[in-house]
């Protein structure tokens, strides 16, 4: 063994703040040393010490096919040989746009960008530009990337404006951001009563994956749509995580099944559509998208937007997940995991609840499924942290914080899931 995770972490911390290029990788919530990954294959990742882990993060969602899927690797290799980046349009961008539009009813045009942050920020600008309004609502516990106006925590009391979550974000910049508790119809109605005609949009993670796994309730989503329509505010679905992950048509298709006539106005995608490459998108009706430059007054641009290698990777990924039976099989594996976790916890007398949709799941050391961020944060974090490390020791890589969702890939076999459940039984017994 040439090096250790600890040695790499120490070296990393000398040249990279906290040793990581994105905070949650640092294991601050759970403690301990982050694993430095050297390679990945199917459902597994391998660290610098040669230890293998069954991966339930999948790069935080994108790796829905598992790592190194042959069709994706082939597409990327062929694209690389044709050139890395042109700064000019390509046919592949049209193909990816067409593929997204075909899968998500309501999206008539998309613009490709390089990260979910960029897509969320641009969707907000588009909604503001199209409505001529400044204020908007977001929900506590929903993450829409790290653009200034979206880095806001809830103020005290209902229908108050929030305050910055991060140093470096002036209060002036977030004074138009209204933060409400998730799944709270009364708070939503109060906010629309007070500010309805000033609201450009409401941005929501319809199945939230950044406060563990929490669904918007059907009555809440129904009322949200009614209020947006009544007040001329756009409903923005941030499906960076849930898109092409909880179902082929994303969470939007889930709510369309549950609420007759339901449709969001603006859509934000990322993660799965890049298949592990930096790629994201936002989309809407043609009428709304016409507001964007070069057609309209809302400026938005990007040197590497629609990158030819990233679009090849995303297209190859979408092609695989569109095959008949893909989501049924993925959902069944994911259910096998969460049902197995619940049953193992029950046998060990450990209170645990879980939920899943498609290839995304969550579990809580709690007696019922939380409906909002505040409740998620009251679940048993000490127990979660012990469980996380017990699983890591046993070669299972779960998200290193209790407020993160988990992901199963199509490369996870029933044998992988069963091995994870066997590890969980030992871990629960050791709690
Ligand atoms: C990951 C995520 C983002 C941000 O995407 P990045 O590519 O990390 O910038 C935005 N919204 C949601 C719902 C996400 O899960």
Overview of this structure, please?
The chain is built from 13 helices and 18 strands. The protein is α/β, with parallel strands linked by helices. The protein has 2 domains: 171 residues, Aspartate Aminotransferase, domain 1 (Alpha-Beta Complex); 252 residues, 3-Layer(aba) Sandwich (Aspartate Aminotransferase, domain 2), CATH 3.40.640.10. The strands form 5 sheets. A 7-stranded mixed sheet has the order 4-14-13-12-9-5-8, sandwiched between helices. Strand 2 and strand 3 form a beta hairpin. The longest helix has 22 residues. The mean pLDDT is 96. Bound molecules: pyridoxal-5'-phosphate (PLP). Pyridoxal-5'-phosphate (PLP) binds next to helix 4.
What key attributes describe this structure?
single chain; 431 residues; alpha/beta; Aspartate Aminotransferase, domain 1; Aspartate Aminotransferase, domain 2; 2 domains; 7-stranded mixed beta sheet; 4-stranded mixed beta sheet; 13 helices; 18 strands; globular; binds pyridoxal-5'-phosphate
